[in-house]
Write a structure and sequence with these properties.
Elements lengths: L5 H16 L8 E3 L6 E3 L6 E10 L11 H18 L3 E11 L5 H18 L2 E9 L5 E10 L15 E4 L5 H11 L9 H8 L5 H10 L4 E4 L4 H12 L2 E5 L7 H9 L4 H7 L6 E5 L4 H12 L4 E7 L4 E5 L2 E4 L11
Parallel strand pairs: 4-5, 9-12
Antiparallel strand pairs: 1-2, 2-3, 3-6, 4-6, 7-10, 7-11, 8-10, 9-11, 12-13
Length: 338
C-alpha cells in the first residue's frame, strides 16, 4: 500500500487539500478566504474585517540564539501587522496563544511581552485575549490579528495587470543576512552589521506605506515579502494569472549587505531574491503612475519605492541579468519538504 505523507504533498498540497475539504462556495459575508494575506469578512458597518494568523515554532522559525524573548515578542506581532499592511488595512485587535515548557523561567514571558507591547503601542493594537498551554518540548507562539479597511481601499494579490511596474518599498536580503550572522558568527564579529541583525530580529512592518497605497488606489496588487520576492511575487502572478520579469540590477540592497556578501562568500542578490523575512511590501502599479508612486512612498516612508520589474503575459517569474533572461525559482524555506 502506497501511503502518501505530508512531505510527499508539501505545504502547498496541504493548503490545497484543506481548501478542497472546506466549503465549495463561501457565504456572501466572506469576501476573501484562503489565498491572500488576510481573510476579508463583511461587517454591519462600512468597513471590512481583516483577519490574519501566524505561528512561530522554536527550532523552525527561531532559536534562543537567533531571537531573544524580547525580539521574539516584537517579531511575532510584526509578521501579522505586515499581512494587514499588505491589504492596505489598519490593525486593531490581537489574540495571543502561547505553548511553552513549564520549566521556562518567568523572565521569558516578561521579556516577550515587553517586545510585544512595544510594537503594539506603536501601532495602537490592543491585546484582547488568547490562550496559554503547556508544551512538552518547543515553544509555540500563535497570534491572530484583526484589522479593518474600507472596501475601496482594499488591495488583493489578484489585481496585477500585464504591463504593470513591479515595486518594492525597501531593501531586500537584510534579514536573511542577519540570520546568517547570528548562526555563524561570534558576537564580537557582528560589529558594523547591526542593521542586518535588527532586520531579522525586529522587522518594521510597512503599515504607513500599505495604508497610503490602498487609499491612493495606485497599487493594483500587493503582498508582503515574507518568503523572498522570488516566491512572494509568484503568489501575485498565480492569483493574477500573469508572469513577471525582474531586473537583477534594480533589486534594492543595502550597503551593509553588499559589503558582507563577499566577506563570507555569499551572494547578496541570492539573499535579496530568496532570503525572505524582509517584510517590505511588493506591489504592482500602472507605468502611467510611476511619478505618483515615487512621490507617495517618499512622503510616507522617507525614501522612494524601487521599481524592479514588469508584469508580463508570459507565465513564470524571470530574472534579467547580464547573462540574459533566466527562470527564477522560488527557493527559501518550505514546510513539509525533504
Amino acid at each position: 500500500m502506497n501511503t502518501k505523507t505530508l512531505n510527499d504533498i508539501g505545504e502547498g498540497g496541504i493548503i490545497q487539500l484543506i481548501q478542497e475539504k472546506g466549503l465549495s462556495r463561501l457565504p456572501s459575508r466572506v469576501k476573501k478566504g484562503i489565498g491572500d494575506d488576510c481573510a476579508v469578512l463583511e461587517t454591519a458597518g462600512d468597513t471590512l474585517l481583516l483577519v490574519t494568523t501566524d505561528t512561530l515554532i522554536e527550532e523552525i522559525h527561531f532559536t534562543a540564539k537567533t531571537l531573544p524573548p524580547e525580539a521574539l515578542g516584537w517579531k511575532a506581532l510584526a509578521v501579522n501587522i505586515s499581512d494587514i499592511a499588505a491589504m492596505g488595512g489598519t490593525p486593531q485587535t490581537a489574540f495571543l496563544s502561547i505553548g511553552i515548557k513549564p520549566e521556562t523561567e518567568v523572565s521569558f514571558i516578561d521579556s516577550f511581552m515587553a517586545g510585544f507591547q512595544a510594537l503594539a503601542r506603536k501601532t495602537d493594537i490592543v491585546l484582547a485575549g488568547g490562550d496559554t498551554v503547556e508544551s512538552p518540548s518547543s515553544a509555540v507562539i500563535a497570534i491572530t490579528l484583526l484589522g479593518d479597511c474600507l472596501p475601496e481601499r482594499l488591495v488583493y494579490r489578484s489585481g496585477a495587470r500585464v504591463g504593470d511596474n513591479i515595486w518594492v518599498t525597501g531593501p531586500l536580503g537584510n534579514a536573511a543576512a542577519g540570520l546568517f550572522l547570528l548562526l555563524n558568527k561570534k558576537a564580537s564579529e557582528l560589529s558594523g552589521y547591526e542593521s542586518l541583525i535588527a532586520a531579522h530580529q525586529k522587522p518594521i512592518p510597512r503599515l504607513k506605506a500599505g495604508k497610503a497605497l490602498g487609499k491612493s488606489g495606485l497599487a493594483h496588487a500587493m503582498i508582503d515579502v515574507s518568503d523572498g520576492i522570488a516566491k512572494d511575487l509568484g503568489h501575485i502572478c498565480e492569483e493574477s494569472r500573469t508572469g513577471a520579469l525582474l531586473q537583477a540590477t534594480s533589486i534594492p540592497m543595502s550597503d551593509e549587505l553588499l559589503r558582507l556578501g563577499p566577506q563570507v562568500e555569499k551572494s547578496p542578490l541570492e539573499w535579496a531574491l530568496r532570503g525572505g523575512e524582509d517584510y517590505e511590501l511588493l506591489f504592482t502599479a500602472s507605468p502611467a503612475n510611476e511619478e505618483k508612486v515615487v512621490s507617495l512612498t517618499t512622503k510616507v516612508s522617507g525614501r522612494p519605492a524601487s521599481k524592479i520589474g514588469t508584469i508580463t503575459q508570459e507565465d513564470g517569474i524571470w530574472l534579467d541579468t547580464d547573462k540574459g533572461k533566466e527562470p527564477l525559482e522560488p527557493g527559501g524555506y518550505v514546510h513539509f519538504s525533504n
